[in-house]
Amino acid sequence: MTHYSACPHDCPSTCALEVERLDDNTIGKVRGASEQTYTAGVICSKVARYSERIHHPDRLTQPLKRTGEKGSGQFSPISWEDALDEVAEQLLKAEQRDGSEAVWPYQYAGTMGLVMRDGINRLRHVKKYSGFHSTICVNMAWNGFLAGTGRLTGVDPREMGKSDLVIIWGTNAASTQINVMTHALKARRERGAKIVVIDTYNNATAKQADLFLCVQPGTDGALACALMHVLFRDNKADREYLEAYTDCPDALEAHLHSRDPAWAEHISGVPASQIETLAGMIGETPKTFFRLGYGFTRQRNGAASMHAALSIAAVAGSWRHEGGGAFQSNGGIYHWDKTLLEGLDHL
Question: pTM of the entire structure?
């Protein structure tokens, strides 16, 4: 019997799944749902082998308490009640000793759903514990994208399949988000689209690219500025679009006047000739899709670099065209009331 589900992993794809049920307690093969047009029947090897992990004899099924020295690997089973009591006691001790802000409930999704992931925020708000905006995994990338779009939304990622130029920047999609490659390769196969990869090392995605730009870590913003410099210099900027939908395009052009490819090569390590080539491709290809990843978060300049890379799509007017524009996450399309879930009524 086949049951339909969604992948619980911390991954932007949230793939639709077809799960084979062998009996009430056992699953078999896990496949991508063919009827869901983003998943398109394709899932990563990790999830395809889900049954091996869920039924593995070493899988944790109850709390364990360390009984030996740290690192000894000696643990004994305890009940859920005892485990929760012990955690709660330690939280109370820290709070009584150093104040409530001494406790910082830090977490991220793993294989949790919305309730398990975000429910910890209710504890944080009720107890007045220390807080943090989202997680260190997303802060820089998300804030840079929000600075340009106003909310965390972008082009429908399925439009990659209708693109003529797909730029995969700061994400090793072939290893970590296979659906990006599904639609990018569809565009290559059906439309002759070119795939460009910008990253800090020659990874699995770069090996499938028509053009690979290897940028020094933390210097993506300089590369983005030089690309926009060429678009303005060669009259490939969509000035009508900029005037209608962006802020301060004239000031941006003036700022970029000295940020030419030679300047960016010195900072980013990307040859000026490659920068000229890519800028020419963008300028000649209305349906250019920028798939921007979480690599921007792994640098102190991440927010500014993400904003700069995102701005290229506006300068080129790529947003006008189906199959063009930019995408990082569509988390902002959901509008749940999380008052009870996150304890927002206790703020």
Answer: 0.92
Cα first-last separation, the chain = 46
Q: What is the rounded CA–CA span in Å between residue 300 and residue 223?
A: 16
Query: CA 337, 33, 183 angle in degrees (round to 5)?
Result: 90
* Dihedral (CA of 297, 302, 307, 310) sign: negative
Neighbours of 287 (CB within 10 A): 21
Structure confidence by residue, pLDDT tens digits, 118-162:
888 999 999 999 988 777 888 889 999 999 999 899 999 999 999
User: Cα 56 to chain center, whole Å?
Assistant: 29
Please report, as a single letter, which amino acid is at residue 57. P
Question: By CB neighbour count within 10 A (0-12 exposed, 13-18 middle, 19+ buried), where does 250 fall?
Answer: exposed
What tens digit of pLDDT does each residue of 255-271 get?
Answer: 999 999 999 999 999 99
Domains located in the chain, CATH noted: 2-54 (2.20.25), 84-134+337-346 (no CATH), 139-328 (3.40.228.10)
